[in-house]
Amino acid sequence: MHEEIKIAGCCNQATTVERTSSSVDEARENRIDPTDGEQIKQLVKERYGHAATQGTGCGCGTDSNEPEFSFVGTEYEGQEGYVAEADLGLGCGVPTELADIKPGDTVLDLGSGAGIDAFIARNETGEEGEVIGVDFTPEMIQKATENATKLGFDNVRFLEGDIENLPIDDESVDVIISNCVLNLVPRKKKAFSQMYRVLKTGGHFTVSDIVVEGDLPDPLRESAALYAGCVSGASEREDYLQLLREAGFDEVSVVREHTINIADEILLEMATEQEVAVFRESGGLSSVTVTGFRRD
Ligand SMILES: C[S@@+](CC[C@H](N)C(=O)[O-])C[C@H]1O[C@@H](n2cnc3c(N)ncnc32)[C@H](O)[C@@H]1O
């Protein structure tokens, strides 16, 4: 299955961005060091803390001074278990649709945000299962917990913790889901080995995420706004799949994908026309939903 989503601005609506030299200079100054994992995690926590407290946002990067864009479109329409208050418009797929969650399963949602995918998963595990969301942004944990309390769910809980060091027992989970999160984790090898550690033998993961199809030019790779916006931290597709295999997973495969086409007016906030053209020619970005199994 292959679709194309064109991202023109906030919540997929075309926006006119007035570009002045000072706004471009500001965006260019707002750089990250892609090798500094701790700086990156601090940035991500701040941006998503802001997203949680501003209520329903639109787009992965949600600082009001920066360009915004959304990957998820209207894919949640008609999903059983959907909870509008828990959907901040921050996803890039619907992993639960392909996650084969069964009644009674223990499901772990990595980077659970306000809880949207955890609540959809809970619809499938039923009363006899359990859903655990982990997120390192305290404001997200608070919002998700409030949502669970309002819904009266006592088998959905949200834990504050880092995916690079999950607060979850070894071999205790049947299914891992995640939606537009792993691109934000600087040490993906560590994250993938944690996923393997907590899955039971026979368990599996289904995660939606962003991958790069070719080269991401340095100015885009170093943009704080694009990092928080789920772009700059994205791995090259084959590297991502290979890292999952190296973590021990079997039958790693892409089960759904969309092309992500970020509008020029957003990219030109951070990079030159030539750099943007190089990025486009190299293949751009995709949203992928990936599965894999722990067999031993
Ligand atoms: C793009 S949002 C997606 C939220 C949610 N999955 C959804 O679809 O609405 C990314 C979330 O991942 C969390 N996150 C990013 N890196 C993390 C890490 N290393 N450990 C735990 N949570 C992380 C952020 O705090 C944020 O809530």
| CATH class category | Alpha Beta
Low-pLDDT ranges: 1-25, 61-65
Bound molecules: S-adenosylmethionine
Query: How many strands, which pairing sense, and closed or not: the largest β-sheet?
Result: 9 strands, mixed
State the secondary-structure class.
Answer: alpha/beta
What form results from the Cα inertia axes? Answer: globular
**CATH second-level architecture:** 3-Layer(aba) Sandwich
Total number of helices? 10
Keywords:
296 residues; alpha/beta; Rossmann fold; 9-stranded mixed β-sheet; 10 helices; 32% helix; 23% strand; binds S-adenosylmethionine
Folded structure, characterized:
- This protein has about 300 residues and is an alpha/beta fold.
- The protein has a single domain (about 1-295), classed as Rossmann fold (3-Layer(aba) Sandwich).
- It is built from ten helices and nine strands.
- The protein has helices at about 20-30, 35-55, 115-125, 140-150, 190-200, 220, 225-230, 235-245, 265, 275-280; strands spanning about 1-5, 105-110, 130-135, 155-160, 175-180, 200-210, 235, 250-260, 285-295.
- Strands 1, 2, 3, 4, 5, 6, 7, 8 and 9 form a nine-stranded mixed beta sheet that branches.
- Helix 2 (about 35-55) crosses helix 4 and helix 5 (about 190-200) crosses helix 8.
- The relative contact order is 0.17.
- Mean pLDDT is about 85; it is low at about 1-25 and about 60-65.
- The site of S-adenosylmethionine has 26 residues, from helix 2, helix 3 and strand 3.
